[in-house]
Structures
1.
Amino acid sequence: MLADGAVELDGVVLVVALRACDHLSLGASLHAVAERRGLQGDDVFVANSLVDMYARCLDLRSAMKVFEMIPRKNVVSWNSMLSGLVHAGRCAEALELLGSPSFLKGGDDVDFDETTLVVLLQLCKKLDEAMWCRSVHAVAFRRLWLASSSLPLLNALLDAYAKCGLLEHALRLFGGMRDKNVVTWSTLIAGCTHNGRPHEAMACSVAMREAGMMPNSITMLSILQACADCAETRVSRCAHGVAVRSGLALERDVGNALVDTYGKCGDLTAAMRAFDAMPRKDVLTWNSMIGALGMNGRAPDALALLDRMEREDDDNVRPNGVTMLAVLSACGHGGLVEEGMTHFERMTAKYSLQPQVEHLSCMVDMLARVGDLEGATKIIEERMLSATSGSLAAAWSALLSACRSHGNCEVGRDAACRVLELEPDNSAGYLMSMSMPGGEQARMRWLMRERGVKVTSGHSVVQVGQEAHRFVSWDGCHLHRAHVYSMLGLLHQQILPPTHDSNHHLHHQHFTLSCIDGATH
């Protein structure tokens, strides 16, 4: 059109072109055209489109320059700049812009609208400010914007509540919504999963289908994440069936999630079937399958799959840091120390990957498991100097656990001191220290009381029908506890029938109580 010259370029054409632009160099060229034609200063719509284009291309400096040059800003100008800052994670600058006098005083007859509140809710999520969500909700209510059933605003509010941990507020809001679309349902399912309530997420997915709403790929990813969190094969297969019927199973992201979900459920046959069915695989697909094999004790198969991955004729499928982490973890859990050391060395030599803290932690765990405590200690002290306190604590904890298994008190005492120094509020270090041979139980208990450390109980989950039942050691809170302990006693009587010998009978009672404690724990 420019080369033809027969038609004069105007602001409308430029706005459309800027909206289509997704490369910074092209956007800068269009900006130059706007400058030469004198369109930027006279047309606020062109200026707003330039702000939006630069923000989408993450050139916030240029976006701010254009924004500041707009003589009379309207609400779209403010929304575009705020949205760009929030999207880029520049939350402090977004707050500063919100607090600027010209915005607060409504300069240039500017008043915020529903889009402004949507941007504010995105800011609430990034800053995890739950109370701000309620304030935005109150403003929207007073302005009667919620009464008009503005779905984008309602969906944004639902998402912000869920991501900020106010799931009950989200559920109440969802229950009062007259209109719901696929984004609404997907947001609620993702919110339940995010808040550690996967069974409610799956119940929402069932209600969604009953309401005649078909899931999209985003919905399926949230549903499969909930299935992975529950580690329930039957439910995962149902979700897989929904993905197939919806025509989503062959999408790469959904396929990757299926492989990961089946792997966490321990169903490696189904995981491999989903893996082989994918027409296009990326590095995440291979990493998910290698990780699933390693997680379930199939280290040789994980290494074989790595070899198969290396033979792939695809430049986009090359082992990365996550691949090597899955391989090293598989070798560590499978006891393949030599293979693990070989692949650790190949990281740099063959793939030009520098070992990160996570890889070094895997090596510490691998060596410690087989009793090479000196080698594990050497890695921590020499190669993990720049690691964060959390990573160091994990490495020393792995070493401490191995010292307990191999009865090495000298190294164990040093590892225990490091763990307690790095994580004084975590009960795991104290409990492992107490279980060491010759551990100072009294001193550890005193330290825990002094520091107010609470012990997190281990628990088991038993699935009965559609309901999951949670048990801790010597659980006395369950509704059917009398029947549970009665049945356990009956089972142990079948294992070891009582005799008339008094000593044997006492031994049998002790054995039964110990087994009951172990089974419920």
2.
Amino acid sequence: MAKNLILWLVIAVVLMMVFQGFNGQTTPKPQKDYISFLKDVEDGNVVEVLVDGQKITGTLRNNENFTTYMPIRDDKLLDQLLEKDIRAFGKEPEEASLLGRIFINWFPMLLLIGVWIFFMRQMQGGGGGRGAMSFGKSKARLLGEDQIKTSFADVAGCDEAKEDVSELVDFLRDPTKFQKLGGKIPKGVLMIGPPGTGKTLLAKAIAGEAKVPFFTISGSDFVEMFVGVGASRVRDMFEQAKKSSPCIIFIDEIDAVGRKRGAGMGGGNDEREQTLNQMLVEMDGFEGHEGIIVIAATNRPDVLDPALLRPGRFDRQVTVGLPDIRGREQILKVHMRKVPLSDNVQASVIARGTPGFSGADLANLVNEAALFAARTNKKVVSQEEFDKAKDKIMMGSERKSMVMTEDEKTMTAYHEAGHAIVGRVVPEHDPVYKVSIIPRGRALGVTMYLPEQDRLSYSKRHLECMISSLYGGRLAEEIIYGEEMVTTGASNDIERATEIAKKMVTQWGLSTKLGPQLFADDENEMYMPGKSNNMSDETAKVIDAEIKDVLDRNYKRAEQILRDNIDVLHTMKDALMKYETIDAKQIDDLMARREVRQPADWDNNDKSDSNTPTGGSSVDVGKDDKPADDSEASKAT
């Protein structure tokens, strides 16, 4: 529209210039000196004159025409002409042409309208050239069948999810195969899973395998400030999809528009609910949309409206969870295709050291490893770069420039040694594989654990062992320096130990006195004394006592372990002060009270050991209310 407006303005200006040219064409007359003109008036040689401002044209007695200009305004000229009986005429002021008058009168209004249209287009995101009144047009981006290069071979780590959606590909390729038997393909597929697990990638792979158009849009693109715009965009999107049928509509983050109705301040009339209502009608209304499959993704299925999830709309729910060790290995191999690798890189070993990583995390790991190799001008990426990348992602970048006093380094070494020793001695705990006193991120030191296998649930004994190891750092400081010299470095350890104990008692039913009961208001809310309405004051006191008993029992156990291994605590501190980082083999030497081997000796003796852990951490605080392993928080000063 802007181009058309400019074109019409140019045409108008050209026409005005043409008209002005025609109107201004006159026969040129010889110019006369004004003083000579006055003498001719005085001598009576002038017959008549035409006065047009300061321009004077006239005729002499010899029928000669002349033109002259007054250099200054001459008020006496009219009296002189009257005295000599010379005919004098005046010229009517010229009026602008009709087109010029229209342009002058309407230009301010046209300018205001143009400015209003411009800002409305910007506010509505309509700058793509679709016109100022395109508020209700769909913002879905269409990818043709030739534009999508993703296939199932590019999706790894979610074999069950791929099986659930594979029949969608068969239907889009050959719908009659199902229709002749009376079968109907699901109209909607809802993909549920944590962020970064590959929901969007799986949807693109379906379109890539079926070779059909792919409409992609975010849930937030429907909702605007004007009521009714979102519903109009939903209608327009399905109209476009009908023209490209069979096709796939992918709505990312559908919870932005699909939340439960009736919870907003606007009742049933606000924009989000109107948009949701229109989507419900389009998916399963009076008109069927054959050949259109709606795929939506969310990591918050609990907030979706029940009407979206009923059969006939999102018939099938596909869970795309975090990959297991085999899935992580497959994902790593997919991302490693684009990276030149050294012969010592083993995807299986890296997968074992990255529990809890999503597909996006693993892609980031491969990218960080490639960046590490590029910084040192290497031509291939080796296992060393993958280890560095893993440590950076889990613990943060090393802050070697941070200046620590010798006393602070010594106390940090004792603190981390306390965590490591208790974690090694307690009966059920993930193995300690690395301890470091190099500051990373906000932490002054880190003790890292490597799970032997992916865990789906935790036993009571395992949880209590974790609490004991969390207290190991604070207890080491207390035993070595005394109670008055204990620092604030264990604040995060205490917080996490208390959180685990609270959940054991109030949510997981692991208290002997209280039994398997839920004492939190909901699964995402921790028990808060005085705020919970589903228990008596007496029960709250019992809960407090049980939590304290769990913490005290494991605190005393950790203290006894450290006192029994005080010599190991001192030698591990010395090793940390010497090497700054010690690994699993060196920790084995320390716990066996042997001479600590050099890192170079480990590299030479254990290169062939493919089962040697090369990474892993429990820096990640437990997901889905599962407890996490240890990582060191920053020490406050």
3.
Amino acid sequence: MRLLTVRKSTDSSSAPRPTARPGARTAATLVVSALLVSSWWTSLAGPGHASEALPAASPASAADGELRGIDLNTVTIPQLQARMASGALTPSGLTRAYLKRIKAIDPKIHAVLRTDRTALQQAARSDARHRRGAVLGPLDGIPVLIKDNVDTKGLLSTAGSLALATAAPHQDADLVTRLREAGAVILGKTNLSEWANFRAARPTSGWSAVGGQTHNPYVLDRNPCGSSAGSGAALAASLAQVAIGTETDGSIVCPAGMNGVVGLKPTLGVVSGRGVVPISAEQDTAGPMARNVVDVALTFTALRGKGHVTGEGTAPAAPRASGTAAGGSTQTGMRGRRIGLWRLPSLGKDVDEIMSAAAQRLRSAGATVVEVTPPYQDRLAELEFPALLSEFHRDIDAYLAGRRGPEDLAELTAFHRADPAEQTCFAGVELFESALKAPPTTDPRYRAARAELTRLARRSIDDTMAAHRLDAIAAPTNPPAWTTDCARGDNDVIPSSTPAAVAGYPSLSVPAGSVGELPVGLLLMSGKHEDEALLSLGAHVEQRLRAWRAPRYLPTLPTPTASDELRGTGR
């Protein structure tokens, strides 16, 4: 899926393995320690774990028997596993509750395309493992929704297009295999922007011919943003504990921000892209989305498996000295952290006020916040889209060769030109046509442009962080959600995701506040393979901002807002 001058998407490529970085946390502790759960997994069966405090139940939750005392809007994976360890909750009970919510709530938002008929069978197997004390990990029995451009055996996996809606894939994408190995319950597939927003010049985010239009749960006539629109909206509506999104530039983080949830775009290559409909192997990555950072961190641990890496580079970078950590001192919470604030006033006064308030809260918690403007942004915008066109032609041809349906991009383009159902919101296939005409990735002009693009994106982050001794750069993730309009479509005006997306560096969106009813996220970005450090920081930021609130499913807002003029897409 894409946000700025390009549509952003998914993940692609496949995998050597990284070496463990010295001092890196194990999968069991990861960033969870930031939320006082560092010893949670190792003590799962212990009595202390089962006594963790749980949020108060909502009326809907309390009616569900096993879920009495659990609010699905706010409960975390560690809290659910505490219940399962004590016998107060079963994976089957949790799965039934989410299936019931999908049936009751999804008709308002159209975020879930289909549920997996085997979900309760998967949950029953997890029940048995919990009874035997043979739990596979923190995700065992946890319901997960998968974006519909990720191959899932036995389920149609269409990228939102009728061209791929004839048969389910014969095997799972690598990331789905890892989720199954971790014991997760594959609950179903989420709607997305068709072809991850890489089909038409003026698409409408959240629309696909297969699933129609996904709506923002906060205000139903507002857009959910980006190609992972269904994953973000489903989480906002608490239709699963976790969802998987994909991003080329903005398609995890913008739906997270605009739907008031958390989304991680990992370092390029840490999550395998085999079996994910591609835009560009140079930028695509799948990543976890959830309603809190701890659930994102635990899912990220499962997705990266035993250290598979795809794309360029097989080993993590050496630990980067940043902030006060450079001197070896210990940081506690936000104290001693250094954050660079990239304001992006083009997103509007209301968003800027949220950024100012967030910066003040972080300063009050002991962080140093300095204003920064990462360089080279105009040049990145100029170079990114042409490079993605060449890469999409190469990568989509390779993907289609292994799927039933159109055999290459030329056939795919002809299919979309001819099928009326593919034109019910917008008719264009301009990006397909441009990709067909783009220079091949063997062309020296393309190679030079991609090399410059990657180099400048990395320098924009690395140089800024080094100059100010930063732990992370922060920026607004999104403007308030614009009204959805097929005739108008989306424009590309949200630049904050681009540096990390093009560099292949991690970025994390956490809720920062709201403009009226409409959520705005804070985007944190850092250096290559700093995913764990970023998640740890994000957990502290989330704790300080406490910006999440449940959606009210309002049909509309009484008056237009300035955000209606700020439109964007994500790929």
